[in-house]
Every structure is written in C-alpha cells, then in structure tokens.
Amino acid sequence: MATGRTHRPATRSRGIPEATVARLPLYLRALTALSERSVPTVSSEELAAAAGVNSAKLRKDFSYLGSYGTRGVGYDVEYLVYQISRELGLTQDWPVVIVGIGNLGAALANYGGFASRGFRVAALIDADPAMAGKPVAGMPVQHTDELERIITDNGVSIGVIATPAGAAQQVCDRLVALGVTSILNFAPTVLSVPEGVDVRKVDLSIELQILAFHEQRKAGEETSAGPGTAPAVSTPATPATPAAPAAGAAPAAGPAGRSGKGGPDGDVPAVMPA
Amino acid sequence: MATGRTHRPATRSRGIPEATVARLPLYLRALTALSERSVPTVSSEELAAAAGVNSAKLRKDFSYLGSYGTRGVGYDVEYLVYQISRELGLTQDWPVVIVGIGNLGAALANYGGFASRGFRVAALIDADPAMAGKPVAGMPVQHTDELERIITDNGVSIGVIATPAGAAQQVCDRLVALGVTSILNFAPTVLSVPEGVDVRKVDLSIELQILAFHEQRKAGEETSAGPGTAPAVSTPATPATPAAPAAGAAPAAGPAGRSGKGGPDGDVPAVMPA
DNA sequence: ATGTCTTTGTGAACGCGTGCACAAAGATTG
DNA sequence: CAATCTTTGTGCACGCGTTCACAAAGACAT
Predict the structure, then answer these.
(1) Which residues of A touch B51 (CB under 8 A)?
(2) What is the 3-state secondary structure (H, E, C) of B151-162?
C-alpha cells in the first residue's frame, strides 16, 4: 500500500468519500480486464470478487457516482469504465515529471501502467550532470536546471519524487513553487507542503515492516503458547519506570555509534538498552 | 499509499490496532533520524511533527505499546527505537526473496531501505533463463527452478512479487505452497491466497489516479463555479435510466474506445483464464 | 398482463479511528 | 518540602467507513 494522504483533514470532495476514491482505480482495473474479454455486463458480486472487495461495499461506492446499474442484470462494463475514468479524471491527459532517475526513478519511467492511464511522462529530471542526456525509457534525462522550463511548457501539475531522502524536500519545494499541486513521493521522508497541495507517499520498506509485524505474531503464536510478541523475550509491560533513567546508559554502547556510518537511510540499531 | 491489507477482517493483533501498526514504521524512521543526531529525548509534540502526524494520535499509539514515556520530559529516543523495532519484529533477520527482476525488481534489489531494517535479500528470482546468472545489486539472478531450494534453505517467509500481472498469481501460489506466509505484491492484480497468508499490495498507478482525481477537482473548482466534476460535461445524475441501454452507444464515441487497444501496460493481462 | 426471480440501491446499526481536553505524574525551582 | 510547570496517558465524544439486510426496480417467463 502506498499509504498516506497528507493535509486535507477529511476531504469528502463532492460527496465522494476518500475511501471510495481510493478503490475506484481497483474497480477500473477489473473492469478494463472484463472489457478486454468483451464481457458486456457484470453483477456487483462478480466485479467485487475480481476487485477483491465486498460486494456491498462496491455497490455503495458506485452509488456515490450515481445509479449506473440495472437491477436484475448488473452493470454495463463499457459504460462503467467510462464513468469511473471520467470521475477519476483519466479522460484527460496528465503530463507528469519524474525527479530523481536512480534505480527506482528509471523503473517508474519504464512502467507501462502510467501511460495506459492517461499519464504522460513529460520529462525525467536528475540533479547529476553525468546523467543528463542519457536515455532512459527512450527519453533523455534532463538536468534540474531545466525544471522550470519543462513544467511551464508542459503544464505539469503532477510530480513524482524518486530522489534520495535528503533531496526530497528541496525538490518538493521547487516543484510547488513552479505550480505543481500534486506530488507522489517515493522518498522516505515527510514532505511539508502548503495548503492546497496533495501529497501521497509510497514507502517500500514500510510495507515490509508491516508484514514483518504480522509474520512475527504468527510465528509467536505457533511456537510458544501465549500472545507474547517474540519468544524468549521479556514482556513489554515490565520496564515501565526504569525506562527513561536506564536509557541514559544506552547511547554509549548502542546505535549512537552507528550514527557516523553513512547508510542508505535510517535503520535499526544493532544493540539496544535495557 | 500502498494500500491494502487483504483477508483478516479487523485484525487487532494482540490489542494493537492495524492503523497504529501502520504508523509504527513512520515513528521508527523519525526516531532513527533523531538517534543519528544523538538527540536523547523527544516530546510527543516534536516527534509527531517529525513523523507528520497528530501528537495525540502518537501518544495514543504509544500507549498501546506500554508506558514508555516520562511525564514532563518526553520519550527516550534510543529506548523507543528499540521498543518499536522489537514490536515490529525488526530485531530479527528476515530473509526475503524478490521474484521478477525487471526494472522494478532490480530497483527493489538495489533499495537500501530493506537491508537497513533487518530485511535480507536472500535471492533474486526470474523466470527468464536469459537473466539467470546476471548480477543485479551484486547478486546473481537465479532461475525459478531454484525457488524451492532457496526458500527452504533460507527459511524465507516473506516474498516480494514484482512480475508482470499475468504471472503474479502463479508465482504467489508457488510461494505459498513453499511456506511463504507474507507477500508484498507490486503486480497490478488481486492475489487470492489461503487463510493465514498476508498480502499487501503496492500499485504505483493507483496512487497517481487518486492524485488525478483531486487534481481534477481542484482544477474544476477554480475554472467553473459549481461543484461539478469536469466542466462542460453533463452531470452524472441524469443518465440513470438510460444507462444500461444507452451504454451500447457509449463505446463508439467516448474513451471506451480505449479498451480495444493493447497498451504497453504491464498491467492488465491481455488474456486471462475464466 | 401478471407473477416470479434476480440484482441493485440504501437505510440503519455497528465498530474503528481520530481528536479534544484534562487529570495524573513527574521534573524542577524556590 | 511545597509550589509550579511540563508533558504524558487516557476517557470521551464524534465522524467515517463497513456491513447487514431488505425494499424497490427491472428483466424474464408464462
């Protein structure tokens, strides 16, 4: 999951709940597949199964868009594809810039799922002068200096940040200053943006960490009996009071020493207090 | 947002809400940054700002883990890093396989954020025999035939799928059969898995689509007046009854024509079984 | 035209997550 | 030791999202 809506407390834009908006692309994908198989209509039950959701939820979601179904029959696939596309704004062309052409940026540039949904990669930007001119995904990488010209010339309003964490905020600020109002952030940092700018983030390692949590829980349940977290580790309830005081000794031995190392990003200490 | 927990209706494992679990990695990242700057303690206010959340929410989240703060002072950074790491299961080593070494798979293999969090890339797998032996991220790509040996030898319980959509379910089934119980899916498909297997998905294009929705809404608001979706388009309320019948005509004119084209998309399978 | 059968659309209940606001707890100062 | 100040931990209320369950609507058969 790419998590994270930032700002805009409970945006229920035009009556369509955020949760529903987040599912529309899923329905669209399932519908597109049906469309390619020339399936004329689907029931909410079938479509829900294809999209991996509850059928009641799907019907309620669609009810926010209007009454597009026919009782006793189901939904017309083509028509629904069009309605959802329009609702999501995919009937128009969205020029996009990708900033930071490292491994991930290059992968994004090559990703077919963008172009097929109306997202046109207008430019690939990188701060490294050595990258300039290099072709990635059949398109020359351009230097950051070109950013302003590119964005204004193409009318770009959506930017993708795939830079290292350290550069992300700076890039973000520049994009926003140039009029970009939607940002998809792959850098592991919290971006601060002014009111009116939407940020969504995708953090690859966060997803793995969430899986690890559940994995640990599963392993713990089958190994030992109780609901304990890790087997053979003291329960988390105990070290309440001694926490803060005891911690004073920690930095000496532990992770503080690691802070010198220039790792790829933040990480977990090898040794810990208490 | 990489969204998407599948299965497990309302998993509140061991009393820690899912929403809280999803935020722990964020806190951890912020705390690690503080740790590297040798900051000894933080208040909930400061940490919340660094993690991009509400301070009340943060305190409540931490309260599920136990009472790790000191009133009037704040939280001990090192200690909290340890507690969260342990809770997430990051104090142990998680061998991971990445299946599908295309652009994205290669980017994932090179991503530093995994290794630094206790995730060890045990192997890179690809179905293409031509890829076998090629070094990616300083590690030879191995053929799918090796999958069983690799997984059992390394005790892999987490798999990352970065294959084209068409191959994802098949790969998933094989992983599950070999004992993998957590899957991070980058392929744009809904994976069906048996009870007890966790799937999280990251769909790059979904995030962009959600941004496009909001972007369209923003544009619509400033251009025309009303809360209408796209300017100069009939409101969605009208075509209620004629929806299904009229839909037959829709594909001709509208974007429905798009369905025919077999895009460069890695996305929807061109053909698929019923 | 009438009745039956299928499937939508939605009212209502429930549960989770969020945020407020404050009491309790400890540090700190005089 | 008492008073004050800071910050945590949480009870409570509210709103969003999910799910159930059913009436309304239309297709289809007779």
Answers:
(1) 190
(2) HHHHCCCEEEEC
CB-closest option in B82, B117, B255 to A267:
B117
Structure tokens at B72: 């009037």
Give the count of alpha carbons within 13 A of A82, CB side only.
Answer: 23
Has residue B269 been placed in a domain? no
By CB neighbour count within 10 A (0-12 exposed, 13-18 middle, 19+ buried), where does B164 fall? middle
Task: Classify residue A264: in a domain, yes or no.
Answer: no
Q: Are B48 and B75 in contact (CB under 8 A)?
A: no
Q: How far apart are CA A148 and CA A271, in angstroms?
A: 46
B76 contact residues in A (CB cutoff 8 A) = 243-244, 247, 250
Strands A74-76 and A41-42: antiparallel
Q: Over the stretch B221-263, which tens digit does the pLDDT of each residue have?
A: 665 443 333 333 333 333 333 333 333 333 333 333 333 333 3
Count of H helices and E strands in chain A? 11, 9
The model's pLDDT over B11-66, given as tens digits with 9 standing for 90+, comes to: 344 689 999 999 999 999 999 999 999 999 999 999 999 999 999 999 999 999 99
Domain that holds residue A53: 13-88
What are phi and psi for residue B14, nearest 5 degrees?
Answer: 55, 35
The total number of structural domains that make up chain A: 2
Residues B117 and B166 grouped into a single domain: yes
Dmax of chain B from CA atoms?
Answer: 69
Nearest to A82 among B36, B157, B255 (CB): B255
Domain of A66: which CATH number? 1.10.10.10
C1’ C6 / CA A39, Å: 19
CATH number at residue B139: 3.40.50.720
3-class secondary structure per residue, A175-213: HHHCCCCEEEECCCCCCCCCCCCEEEECCHHHHHHHHHH
Question: Would B210 be classed as within a structural domain?
Answer: no
Q: Which of B189, B180, B194 is nearest to B268 (CA)?
A: B189
Q: Reduced to 3 DSSP states, what percent helix, strand and coil does chain B have, rounded to the nearest 5? A: 45, 15, 40
